[in-house]
Amino acid sequence: MVCLFSQVARLARLISRWRWKRQIPLRHQETRVDIPPIFRSRLYLKASELLSFLPFSRRTLGRMESQGRFPAAVALSAGIKAWRTDEVIRWVNERNGTSS
C-alpha cells in the first residue's frame, strides 16, 4: 500500500515539472498588474480592494509595506488603514515599466 504523503509529494513534483516545462509563472511571480478602472476614481483603497487585483496575499502586502517596497498606508481611523490610489498607481506603473 502506497503512503498518501508519497502520492501527494509525487503529484506536487509532477505539477512543478509541468509548470517549468511550459514556463507558466506562479501567482506571486507574475509581473503585469492592472488596476480596474472602477478603483482609479477613488482617493483611497482598502486592503481588500487592493488584493482583488494585486498578485499577492494580505501578509505579503504588509511585509512589502514594512520593508518599503510598497507605498505606506494611511490610518483613516483606529482600525482602518488604506492606501492612496495615486501612490498605488505609481507603484504599479513602475513595476510594469509604463508611464502615466
Describe the 3D structure.
There is one protein chain. The protein starts with a helix and ends with a helix. It is 49% helix and 9% strand. It has a 3-stranded antiparallel beta sheet. It has a domain at 33-100: Orthogonal Bundle (Arc Repressor Mutant, subunit A). The longest helix has 19 residues, at 4-22. With 100 residues, it is mainly α. The chain has helices at 4-22, 37-40, 47-50, 58-67, 85-96; strands spanning 44-46, 74-75, 81-84. It contains 5 helices and 3 strands, in the order H-H-E-H-H-E-E-H. The protein is elongated, with a radius of gyration of 18 Å.
Walk me through the topology.
Blueprint: H1 4-22, H2 37-40, E1 44-46, H3 47-50, H4 58-67, E2 74-75, E3 81-84, H5 85-96
Antiparallel strand pairs: 1-3, 2-3
**Annotation field: number of helices:** 5
Strand order of the largest sheet: 1-3-2
Annotated CATH topology of the domain at 33-100: Arc Repressor Mutant, subunit A
Work out the number of β strands. Answer: 3
The CATH C-level class name of the domain at 33-100: Mainly Alpha
Q: What do the pLDDT scores average to?
A: 77
Task: State the end-to-end distance.
Answer: 60 Å
Structural class: mainly alpha
